[in-house]
Amino acid sequence: MADKMVAASDHAGLNLRAEGIKAARARGVEVEDLGPFTADSVDYPDFAVRVGEAIGAGRARFGLLVCGTGIGISIAANKLPGVRAALCRTEYEARMARAHNDANVLCLGERVTGPGLGAAIVEAFLATPFEGGRHARRVEKLDALDRR
Ligand code: RB5
User: Fold this and answer.
1) I want to staple 77 with a disulfide (CB 3.0 to 4.6 A). Which of 11, 36, 48, 71 is the partner?
2) Is residue 11 flagged as an active site residue?
3) Which domains does the chain have, with CATH numbers?
């Protein structure tokens, strides 16, 4: 699978989702936008499920989820099998989420993170490979939690 990304948000994450999609496409990443496509109030778990199911089914390597704080949508995403979602506020956290945790879903909060920083966080996340090594064993243990 190429570095395809699926993206979704709730109503509080529409603008930062658009910024993140733009940043990913600028890097040559194919992005499937899973909505929502109006500003109506929606429930963030419903949109976390859209991204989580696409990741779990192998339809995309990466996901982007945005809500107001990033908290609710990251909690929801991490309940889905195969998802390792990381809520990141800084580029450093995005790099570490990839390098050490092999995170496959980046969560952002539009009410916390501005558009410029948000785009930089997306770029850092997509640019950073998983380090493997000692971290691989820990990530395997994370994935084993899906089967408990
Ligand atoms: C919506 O008002 C808000 O609660 C939601 O976007 C998110 O911040 C929840 O964690």
Assistant:
1) 48
2) no
3) 4-145 (3.40.1400.10)
